Amino acid sequence: MTTQGRICIAGIYEHPLRKAPDISTAQLHAECALGALQDAGLTFADVDAYYCAGDAPGGITMMANHMGLNLSQIDGTEVGGSSYILHLAHAAQAILSGRAKVALVTLAGRPKSDPLKPPPPGPATEFEAAYGIATQNAYAMCAMRHMHDYGTTSEQLAWIKVAASHHAQWNEHAMLRDVVTVDDVLNSPMIADPLHRMDCCVVSEGGGAFVVTSADMARDLGKPLVVLRGAAETNMGQDHGRNVPLTHTGAAITGPKAFAEAGVTVADIKYASIYDSFTITVLMQLEDLGFCEKGKGGAFVADGNLISGVGKLPWNTDGGGLCNNHPTNRGGLTKVLEAVRQLRGEAHPKVQVPNCDLALVHGTGGLLGVRHAAATAILERIA
Amino acid sequence: MTRTLPEPKISPELADFWAATRDGRLLVRACRSCDSPHWYPRTICPFCGSPDTEWRDHDGTGTIVTYSVMRRAPVPYVTAYVELTGGPTLLTNVMDCDPDALAIGQAVRAVFPKTEAGEAWVMFTPA
Ligand SMILES: [Zn+2]
Predict the structure, then answer these.
(1) Global pTM?
(2) Does residue A1 sit within a domain?
(3) Where are the alpha helices (H) located in chain A, listed in sequence order?
(4) pLDDT digits (tens, 9 = 90+) for A272-281
(5) Which DSSP string do the residues of A287-345 spell out, in sequence order?
(6) Chain B residues 73-92 with CB within 8 Å of chain A
(7) Are residues B24 and B120 in contact, defined by beta-carbon separation less than 8 angstroms?
(8) Of B39, B46, B70, the CB nearest to A132
């Protein structure tokens, strides 16, 4: 059952806080939910499907009860930062099947004040726990191999951060609003070779939410109609030690599937929200989604090609995870929000893409090079 | 490197692996049905689904596929993927080395540093 324009993102909200020591994580979720419902012109009483991930305090039933929801669809799919893009696709299916009418998706967290606990150890942990795999060195191993295989340089990676900073300067809520240069990135301290501090995203608190309905319902709600054209999700591990994917990602699978479902090609995309835990994350996903050939990502991102109004592919115009926010170390939901703003024409005027009618959203949850889930969604403004 | 190693949470069905590492030997799990070695060890082959799997001795030689030096840790350490001779490739650490002298493709050999309880992890050092 393809969505093909029958499902809308009817409401969005991004919490303005980036540090939230004086508000509970549950309250953050609830405020995000309320904001997205108000944006849609709906109320908590309208919600009959709820989607949240491992960041929901007390789990999905506690948060659902906390907000007074009466549900016919309950989906706590937890695949890290990509969860919310999967939630979007799952909500679309639930609405298309007639099992739900109004789906709410929330993310919120406070990694400094109220950090998430890691999941219980699993079968791979038995053979990996001693090796000190943190987020930074996992992605760094991908970058090291990408540089070895394709000649990608630290200067090229730095351009990704430069682009994010150019966008973040216009976002009053962004954590890092100073425009930076390639040299600034290269001169920032080395965290895990070859990734510098400025190759890494921010650690931020906060959250966001969105509301999914049928296009028929959204038409009566008054916002510009942003429909889901196509979506895909997948998982990727280490190929059990045979051919460990170090220079490609799940986007190589989800990108083509989402484009096929949407009936569009990469050349049609006017704006892209692409997960940016690190600069290398963006580069590998851009290649895998088909914005350039595998191995040519370095040349593609250089010289401001991702800067709105400057380059060919306006990307993460809110400043993304690299500069704006990365609520509780999860980037997927905010990627949806900025894509919807672009499609509605509600992005900051300095970064708004003219006639933005087709956008791509892509997220990764977990660790590239170790194991992750990936999800792509293609959104279109139809009215 | 003087990082404290955690105790492995040993699955009963894979206890032979950890008994071997305690003796300084590396076992790789492989499938008799599709003849593929895999990592990490499982009793059911993740490639073909066959339960007909066995332990095979490995001499612990291999090469670095990729690596990174974690500079921001109290004691910097090297994570790496090492491709064992004949496969498979595993996530690991390279220890007792000059981190700035490592390279992709470099030959390494297995070592078996011990935990406080006497269990031993598989790590590598330049050959
Ligand atoms: Zn097999």
Answers:
(1) 0.97
(2) no
(3) 25-40, 60-66, 83-96, 135-150, 154-168, 182-187, 215-219, 251-262, 279-289, 297-301, 332-344
(4) 999 999 999 9
(5) HHHTSS-TT-HHHHHGGGTTSTTTSSS-B-TT-IIIII--BTT--HHHHHHHHHHHHHT
(6) 73, 77, 79-81, 87-92
(7) yes
(8) B70
Instruction: Give domain status of residue B35, yes or no.
Output: yes
- Both tokens assigned to B58: 């490995």
Task: Supply A264's token pair.
Answer: 């569009």
Q: Give the type of residue at A383.
A: A
The total domain count for chain B is 1
- Among A243, A285, A224, residue whose Cα is nearest residue A12: A224
Best to test chain A binding among B38, B56, B79, B102 (most A CBs inside 10 Å): B79
In a domain, A284, yes or no: yes
Chain A residue closest to B92 (CA)?
A131
Total domains, chain A? 2
Q: Do A257 and A268 belong together in one domain?
A: yes
pLDDT digits (tens, 9 = 90+) for A88-141: 999 999 999 999 999 999 999 999 999 988 889 999 999 999 999 999 999 999
CB contact under 8 A, A129 and B6: yes
CB contact under 8 A, A133 and B89: no
Task: Answer whether residue B7 is part of any domain.
Answer: no
Instruction: Give residue A19's domain range.
Output: 7-112+205-225
Residues A135 and A122: their CA atoms lie apart, in Å, by 18
